[in-house]
């Protein structure tokens, strides 16, 4: 199609049409109503003029607002998606730097310590071995931060495998079983949908580990032709009241893909996080 309309051109057309409509209506009313204005305006005519003007301005404002709402909403969503992309790029950069700089330095330090431990006199051997352990623990920590910052599995293998990997890591770290029910996705979903899903699952599982005191965790994902639903539930203490940066972050991410995020968390009855994302028409 030639001459695709830009948002600015569409905006201009709408404003022009609405204003035109109001002017036409105003002209008709003037022509058809008995109201008239003397050549030297009379005091009694002023209220009529003011009321007429107010009616026209109000009609204009109402029409403009309802007609521009979809445009403004789509602009907000686009800006939000750009913010999400920028944030993900920044995470990738930090992950790369952590891995390449601190990760390498710690690895070298570890090797040097190992040689030192082997040759050290008995009286400082155990102290050095302790230092070696501390450095090894830092290296593990850096690696796990890098993994969390950069969901490699998501890019390489897609959402289904990435969620499976996330669950295994969680179970390993917490010794809590995760009952998984992850329907495998035939096609890759849009990248932003996959990312939002992954991040919501990640934050929800982290919250279970940190706050829930649960015995069991469930993670399900399934999709129909027009939506994708993700659910993370636990049988822990429930009663989520104040929402911190983690839950707010999930809500903001949900908005970016027009999804709804619902948290159900009655006291002592566990917590359930549900994310429902509308999917773009796949055959359209
Ligand atoms: N699964 C859960 N079970 C019980 N309480 C929870 C659960 N998830 C969240 N909460 C409660 O809700 C609060 C807010 O969670 P949120 O993720 O927003 O913040 P946070 O985990 O405390 O910090 P962060 O910003 O690092 O995520 C938590 O402090 C906790 O009290
Ligand atoms: Mg949290």
TrEMBL record:
<dbReference type="GO" id="GO:0000155">
    <property type="term" value="F:phosphorelay sensor kinase activity"/>
</dbReference>
<feature type="domain" description="Signal transduction histidine kinase subgroup 3 dimerisation and phosphoacceptor">
    <location>
        <begin position="90"/>
        <end position="154"/>
    </location>
</feature>
<dbReference type="GO" id="GO:0016020">
    <property type="term" value="C:membrane"/>
</dbReference>
<keyword id="KW-0418">Kinase</keyword>
<keyword id="KW-0547">Nucleotide-binding</keyword>
<keyword id="KW-0812">Transmembrane</keyword>
<feature type="transmembrane region" description="Helical">
    <location>
        <begin position="46"/>
        <end position="64"/>
    </location>
</feature>
<feature type="domain" description="Histidine kinase/HSP90-like ATPase">
    <location>
        <begin position="197"/>
        <end position="280"/>
    </location>
</feature>
<dbReference type="Pfam" id="PF07730">
    <property type="entry name" value="HisKA_3"/>
</dbReference>
<keyword id="KW-0067">ATP-binding</keyword>
<protein>
    <recommendedName>
        <fullName>histidine kinase</fullName>
        <ecNumber>2.7.13.3</ecNumber>
    </recommendedName>
</protein>
<keyword id="KW-0472">Membrane</keyword>
<keyword id="KW-1133">Transmembrane helix</keyword>
<keyword id="KW-0808">Transferase</keyword>
<feature type="transmembrane region" description="Helical">
    <location>
        <begin position="12"/>
        <end position="34"/>
    </location>
</feature>
<keyword id="KW-0902">Two-component regulatory system</keyword>
<dbReference type="Pfam" id="PF02518">
    <property type="entry name" value="HATPase_c"/>
</dbReference>
<dbReference type="GO" id="GO:0046983">
    <property type="term" value="F:protein dimerization activity"/>
</dbReference>
<dbReference type="InterPro" id="IPR011712">
    <property type="entry name" value="Sig_transdc_His_kin_sub3_dim/P"/>
</dbReference>
<dbReference type="GO" id="GO:0005524">
    <property type="term" value="F:ATP binding"/>
</dbReference>
<dbReference type="InterPro" id="IPR036890">
    <property type="entry name" value="HATPase_C_sf"/>
</dbReference>
<keyword id="KW-0597">Phosphoprotein</keyword>
<dbReference type="InterPro" id="IPR050482">
    <property type="entry name" value="Sensor_HK_TwoCompSys"/>
</dbReference>
<dbReference type="InterPro" id="IPR003594">
    <property type="entry name" value="HATPase_dom"/>
</dbReference>
């Amino acid at each position: 199609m030639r001459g695709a309309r830009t948002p600015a051109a569409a905006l201009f057309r709408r404003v022009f049409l609405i204003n035109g409509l109001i002017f036409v209506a105003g002209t008709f009313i003037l022509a058809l109503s008995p109201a008239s204005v003397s050549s030297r305006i009379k005091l009694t005519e002023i209220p009529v003029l003011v009321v007429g003007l107010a009616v026209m301005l109000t009609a204009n404002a109402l029409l403009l607002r309802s007609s521009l709402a979809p445009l403004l909403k789509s602009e907000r969503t686009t800006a939000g998606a750009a913010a999400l992309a920028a944030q993900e790029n920044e995470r990738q950069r930090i992950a790369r730097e952590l891995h390449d700089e601190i990760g390498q330095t710690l690895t070298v330090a570890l090797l040097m310590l190992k040689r030192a431990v082997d040759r050290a006199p008995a009286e400082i051997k155990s102290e050095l071995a302790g230092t070696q352990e501390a450095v090894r623990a830092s290296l593990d920590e850096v690696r796990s931060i890098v993994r969390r910052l950069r969901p490699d599995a998501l890019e390489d293998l897609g959402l289904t495998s990435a969620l499976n990997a996330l669950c295994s890591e969680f179970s390993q770290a917490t010794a809590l079983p995760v009952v998984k029910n992850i329907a495998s996705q035939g096609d890759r979903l849009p990248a932003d949908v996959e990312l939002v899903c992954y991040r919501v699952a990640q934050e929800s599982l982290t919250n279970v580990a940190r706050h829930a005191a649960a015995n069991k965790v469930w993670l399900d994902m399934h999709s129909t032709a027009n939506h994708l639903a993700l659910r993370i539930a636990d049988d822990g203490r429930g009663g989520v009241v104040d929402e911190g940066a983690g839950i707010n972050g999930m809500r903001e991410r949900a908005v970016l893909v027009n999804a709804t995020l619902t948290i159900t968390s009655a006291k002592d009855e566990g917590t359930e996080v549900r994310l429902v994302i509308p999917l773009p028409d796949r055959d359209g």
